[in-house]
Amino acid sequence: MLPPVKIPTPFQDMRVTGDHVEVSPLEITFMVDENCDNYFAILEWLTLIGFPDSWDQYSTIYATAGQYTSGSLSIMNNLKVPTREIFFEKLFPIDLTNMEFASPSSDVKYVTATAKFMYQTFTVNTVNTPTQLIM
Known about the structure:
135 residues; alpha+beta; two-stranded antiparallel sheet; 7 strands; 36% strand
């Protein structure tokens, strides 16, 4: 998003194009694995950069990888072949939904959660995949 800048005048405020792009958070809904490892890894990351319980926890995040990371997201076609790859820099979590544990029907319903991440920049690359004939 490129929010406009408001310039006050004696009459009506003028709006001109802004000069700072604001990105929306990256929102990912994922299946929680059977031991909830992926969920608790993001939860621990949030806790360490937000409100740790002790100074030891606080120093852990800065002694190891830090509060930021980089990440990539692959976009696949209908044959599940990657076509584009998005690389995110200075990625960090800002929100994690609750896991809903319910079994209202006999069908298998996987537990999912949604994580939101902010990031500094991203780049999109086209993946050159060889064309294959599938028989």
